[in-house]
């Protein structure tokens, strides 16, 4: 009996000694590197043993953690890329329910991310010219310039660049960094003149459609008749009609059926508009018009492919200009839209 109890105790002890740690199981499941840094100290890191047990490693004096090799290397090589900033005191802590060693993208940014350690979020940033890959959980080269934070890498100080995801803001280049700037209320960024211009009626920028309107008021979306905007605190919030219906500006609501041929005001310059009947979802034209008359809002030509709002977050979607309307398209699973080339390509 004593022999049996002793054997059970020994087996239980052995199981406890080699129980897989959550951090190691997490990294193995996602095929991530089995080592990660201590975000508060470049000379200390963690690695998983063959039995998936987490071990802390402290580098010798003059050496730091090497993320490529998972070992300690000479500090003279400039290997320490950590910000070594204090953990953030956030109202909503992204690492509150995460295990140590998890890398999380920082919302609204493409180079910034967090390293979770002891349920605290340590802010980090990828080098200029790279971006944070949420799938690989690491920084990768931004070869296709997908990250807005890299727009100014080769630009002069003081250069103004358009923000593809917002018509009422732009980027100011400073020391190679892109700093987002807002145009004044009721104005938009003119991509040709590279300045902010008045847009009190939302004629050139959908983000200005709700200026002066009551909360809860509905506004037509001239680019998509199957959706509309609801005004909240002067800002338009996009909503979608139920399947099989469209937004009727006369009824100020969604009605059954498909979009009917209608008259759409299309901005042609900064100061004038032209009114033309362009058939939606048809090749017919109600009145003789020139080819340019069916350009899409924003001056896009027939057949032009346009990045989707909040690109690159919605990197698999884009708009196609067709009969005066910007139609939403998708590249398909495993692909993304290359805004520079205007084509869909594998998301590798």
UniProtKB/TrEMBL annotation:
- Domain Chitin-binding type-2 residues, every copy: 21-82, 92-147, 149-207, 210-254, 293-348
**Signal peptide positions (record):** 1-19
PROSITE patterns xrefs: CHIT_BIND_II
Tell me which domain of life the UniProt entry assigns to the organism this sequence originates from: Eukaryota
For this UniProt record, the keywords arranged alphabetically read as follows: Chitin-binding, Disulfide bond, Glycoprotein, Repeat, Signal
Q: Which GO terms label this protein's molecular function in UniProt?
A: chitin binding
Q: What is one GO cellular-component annotation here? A: extracellular region
Spell out the InterPro entries in the cross-references.
Answer: Chitin-bd_dom, Chitin-bd_dom_sf, Chitin_bind-dev_reg
The name of this protein is Peritrophin-44
